[in-house]
Structures are given as C-alpha cells and as structure tokens.
DNA sequence: GTGGTCTAGACCACA
DNA sequence: GTGGTCTAGACCACA
C-alpha cells in the first residue's frame, strides 16, 4: 500500500479517499486488521489527529470498525463494501458525464476517446 | 447564463469553473463583453472583491482580458479557448480513467456503463 | 511617427513617454507644429481628454508650448530638449544599474552581455 | 530583509518585486521558510490580505509553495529560481537597450557611460 | 462609468 | 498556530 499526498486538498480527505479505494478494490482484505494510528502516523508522517479523523470517516461509512482496546478492522461485510463501491462508481460516472456534457462533448466522442486511450497503452 | 453555488468549494473557484465552461463551450462568445464587476456582484449577490478574484484567474488563463476603464472581454483567440477546452477535457478523462482503474473497473465495463446510461435517457 | 499602446499602464503616460522620445531624439523637429488634439484623437483612436492630459504634461516639461487659438508647437529650445534627454538617460541608466546590482550582476557582466548582444545583431 | 514602499505602484507589486529579488539573489535561501502572513503583516504594517495577494503571485511564479496549515516556503528548485532570474535579467537588459536606442544612444556610449560610473564610485 | 487596491475584520478548516 | 475566503466599504486613476 502506497499513499500519495498533495497540497490541493486536506490530507485527511486524501487519506480517506485512498483507503476507500484500497478497501473497495480489495487491496486491503475484508476483515483485515489495520495498523494502529501511531504506526500509520509514523509511516505516513502525518499527525495522529489527522489519521484519527480519516479513520473516523471510514467508520461512519461502515467500512471499518473499532474493537475497543484491540484495534481497528476492515469490515467483513461484502454488502457494505459493495455498496460503497457502487456509490463511488456511480458518483464518478455521473460527474464525468456531466462534465463532458458541459464541455459539449457527446457520449460517442467520449467512447471514441476511451477506445483510443486503450490502444495507446 | 445561470450560476449555481454550493458550499463545497470557494465561491470564486466555482465562478471560475462555470465561466470557463461557458467560454469553452461557446455559450459566451469569443470577443464578447462581460458584465461589469459591479453588475455581476449585484446579479450573483457576491461581493465585488470575490468576483474580481475569479475574473483575475480567468485573465491569468488568458481566457479574458481587460480594457482599462472600459470593461472585460472574452478573448477572441480561438487558440486560447481551444487549448483550455482540451486541457479541461483531457484532465477530466485521465482522472476518470484513473478513478475507474483504482476501483477495479475495466475500460469495457465503463463503456458498457456509458451505453446503458445512454439508453435510459 | 508610430504609436503603440498596451494595457499595462495608463494611456496618457504611454503617450507622454513616446512623444518625449520622439522629441528628444529629434524625430519630431524643434519648433515643429503638432497635429491638433482632434486630429491626434482621430489618428490614435484615443479620447481627446487623454490626449489633452498627455500634452499638458509635455507643456509642464517645457517640451512643447501652446500658441492660443493657433496650436501647439515643439519647443525650439535645444537647452530644454537636451536637459530632458539627459534626465531621461541618467534616470534609465541609474535604474538599470540598480536593478542589475539587486540581481547580483556586476558591471563587468553587464558589459560582457551588452557586447554579446552587439555581436548577435 | 528590508522593504521599502513608495506610492508609485501598488504595494503588493512592490512586495512581489522585492521578494523576487531577495529570492533570485539568494538573500532568502532556497527551501527557507517565510515568516507567516500575520508576522509579515505586523512587520511591514500592511494588511494581511495584501500580503496574501503578493505571496499568491510568487506562488504562481513557482518561487514559493505552501504547506497547508504549516506555512510558506521558498522553492528548493534552483531551476525555477534560475529561470526567474534569467527572465528578470533579460527583460531589464532588453528594455534598457531599447530605451537607449530610442534616445539615440549607441551601445558604445552606454558602455563608456557605465565605465565612467564605475570610476566615480 | 470602468477596473484596481487596500483595509478592517470576521470566520473557517486544518494540523 | 497556519493559510484561505469573504464581506463591507472606502478610495483611486482613468476615459
């Protein structure tokens, strides 16, 4: 797991986004234990308060849960994970389509563009 | 021209984004005169300083220019407008593809998804 | 005589500067009659008030003088013209040296630079 | 670091210019931390908004960068600093040569003049 | 009328 | 503590 941060948005938000992606894409496995806040703080060179804030958000989304005195775990609920994945996907698709529409770019052009990008890679 | 503002990002940024879209999509025509800062301020119920800040950004992007004591105009340079449009489009496409890849969604799935959205509408 | 204007400084100032240069460099001859404000206004596409303001400045500098009901003339006084030329020159040289010093560039480097520029042309 | 302000141009521009000089001449070292906006405001007796505006310009020029909630730093990029220094130097030299040419003063005369200034000092 | 600058001061998120 | 945003409002030069 690698994390990248820029100065364009709050660090805790960037952390939430990246952890969400690791969870919904399965790169962090369901039910797995998370490193402690202290550990994460050291590893990522981020203030523990900021880590805590990010993890709190993930807990609100029911993607992780806390076992008192024991640590934090990724949910085992495929349903929760799937729901978040679907939400994220839909949100991003809708936003993308809207953006393209506002730019005056049709669905056909988008698809053509995507296919070309596919060939180049 | 309609403008909508939410509380998720600074007003001046939202104004810049919306004006950019109006310009690159041609809804404000190249060379056209913009309403004065005072007028926009009244219309949008936004402080003139905030309007000024947004327009300054657009001027930095060379999408508008200022005639001293006369007013502000959209650039007539199709090149500038086209360049910005291309930049905005590419940026959003790349971001979208990256997001989808991180979510573990393949290009084929995206296209399928887009086509389905097309049918629904 | 050609005039060029940008939006970086007030037009009347740009007009003063350009006229000063034409006078001190002799491109407008001493004692010569200037076009009327109306004519200049038409030619340069500049508001007559702006022309008037610029000419007033030149009159304060004793580079031109007004013959009531007859028009405006460039001074015949070589002394006045020479004095202004010297002032402008010294001012610009001092400013340039100061700028270069602030940039940490020595006199020797400047001269080297100038000579190189000479060769290229 | 000393700052001087006159009434000939906007304060924020003068501040930008002076900070640029301090940066490109190395008097503020690359990577160094700038005083906070509030501190500068107090020291220079200038409104924080005006300071902010000046620093924003420097950030646009990529001469400084912001660490969220932490402060502002001079870039460590020698490339950026060098590029700006070169730009400033060339600009001023070209402007100077043009001015002198318009005044009808030859390169030889300029150099003679510079050398004389050297002797006087 | 136009845009530009500046101040005072409040308020916010973030770390 | 840090920077960022926004408003209210004054004032200015210019055309």
How would you characterize this protein structure?
The first copy, chain A, has 121 residues and is mainly α. The first copy, chain A, has helices spanning 11-24, 37-44, 48-60, 78-102, 107-120, and strands at residues 64-67, 71-74. Chain A has a two-stranded antiparallel ribbon. The model of chain A has no long low-confidence stretch (mean pLDDT 89). Chain A binds chain B through residues 21, 24-26, 85, 88-89, 92-93, 96-97, 99-100, 102-105, 107, 110-111, 113-115, 117-118, and chain B through 21, 24-26, 85, 88-89, 92-93, 96-97, 99-100, 102-105, 107, 110-111, 113-115, 117-118. Chain B binds a DNA duplex (15 and 15 nucleotides) through residues 10-12, 36-38, 46-50, 52-53, 55, 66-72.
Number of helices of chain A: 5
The largest sheet of chain A has its strands arranged as 1-2
Q: N-to-C SSE series of chain A?
A: HHHEEHH
Our Rg estimate of chain A from Cα atoms comes to 18 Å
What are the key terms here?
homotetramer, 5 helices, about 120 residues, DNA-binding, two-stranded antiparallel ribbon, about 5% strand, elongated, mainly alpha
Task: Please sum up the structure shown.
Four copies of one chain form a homotetramer. Chain A has 121 residues and is mainly alpha-helical.
List the helices and strands and how they pair.
4 copies of one chain form a homotetramer.
Chain A: H1 11-24, H2 37-44, H3 48-60, E1 64-67, E2 71-74, H4 78-102, H5 107-120
Antiparallel strand pairs in A: 1-2
Chain B binds a DNA duplex (15 and 15 nucleotides) through helix 3.
């Amino acid at each position: 797991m690698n994390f990248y941060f820029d100065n364009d948005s709050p660090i805790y938000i960037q952390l939430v986004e990246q952890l969400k992606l690791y969870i919904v894409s399965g790169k962090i496995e369901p039910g797995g234990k998370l490193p402690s806040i202290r550990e994460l703080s050291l590893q990522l060179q981020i203030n523990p308060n900021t880590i805590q804030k990010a993890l709190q958000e993930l807990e609100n989304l029911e993607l992780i849960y806390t076992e008192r005195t024991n640590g934090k775990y990724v949910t085992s609920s495929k349903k929760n994970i799937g729901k978040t994945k679907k939400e994220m996907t839909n949100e991003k698709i809708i936003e993308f389509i809207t953006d393209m529409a506002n730019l005056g770019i049709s669905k056909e052009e988008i698809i053509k563009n995507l296919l070309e990008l596919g060939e180049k890679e």
